[in-house]
């Protein structure tokens, strides 16, 4: 009994070009929790913080964003969860 040979395509090259961190382009020194319009870009519709692989932010700025979003949530500038 022979099984049909499955040909697996090598899809290793599927790596989209890494876009630079938008906050680095803006030369943002800090991300403040009051800057809701900016933070909105790093929060999904459900209110979750967008991961770095999607937001494209560098580690430095992603960390700032994370802290700022968490602070903004506490003061109810941003929702913890949105339905
Ligand atoms: Zn950056």
Task: Walk me through the topology.
Elements: H1 22-25, H2 36-40, H3 52-55, H4 59-74
Bound molecules: zinc ion.
Zinc ion binds next to helix 1 and helix 4.
Structure notes:
The protein has a domain at 30-74: Ribosomal protein S18 (30s Ribosomal Protein S18, Irregular), CATH 4.10.640.10. The mean pLDDT is 88. It starts with 21 loop residues before the first helix and ends in a 9-residue tail after the last helix. By secondary structure, the chain is mainly α. It has helices at 22-25, 36-40, 52-55, 59-74. Helix content is 35%, strand content 0%. It is elongated. Zinc ion is lined by residues 21, 23-24, 57-58, 60-61. Belongs to the bacterial ribosomal protein bS18 family. InterPro entries: Ribosomal_bS18, Ribosomal_bS18_sf. GO terms for molecular function: small ribosomal subunit rRNA binding; structural constituent of ribosome. It holds the Pfam family Ribosomal_S18. This is Ribosomal protein S18.
**Class of the domain at 30-74, according to the CATH hierarchy?**
Few Secondary Structures
CATH architecture of the domain at 30-74: Irregular
Q: What would the principal axes of the Cα set say about the shape?
A: elongated
Could you estimate the helical fraction of the residues in percent?
25-40%
Main beta sheet: none
Pattern of helices and strands: HHHH
Query: What gyration radius follows from the Cα positions, in whole Å?
Result: 19 Å
Number of E-type strands: 0
Name the CATH superfamily assignment of the domain at 30-74: Ribosomal protein S18
What is the residue-mean pLDDT, rounded to a whole number? 88
Task: Please report which band the strand proportion falls in: under 5%, 5-15%, 15-25%, 25-35%, 35-45% or over 45%.
Answer: under 5%
Alpha-beta classification: mainly alpha
**Number of helices, where a helix is a run of at least 4 consecutive DSSP H or I residues:** 4
């Amino acid at each position: 009994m022979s099984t049909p040979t499955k040909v697996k395509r090598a899809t290793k090259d599927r790596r989209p070009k890494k876009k630079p961190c938008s906050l680095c382009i803006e030369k943002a020194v800090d991300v403040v929790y009051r800057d809701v319009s900016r933070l909105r870009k790093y929060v999904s519709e459900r209110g979750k913080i967008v991961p770095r692989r999607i937001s494209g932010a560098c580690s430095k700025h992603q960390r700032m964003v994370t802290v700022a979003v968490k602070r903004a949530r506490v003061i109810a500038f941003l929702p913890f969860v949105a339905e």
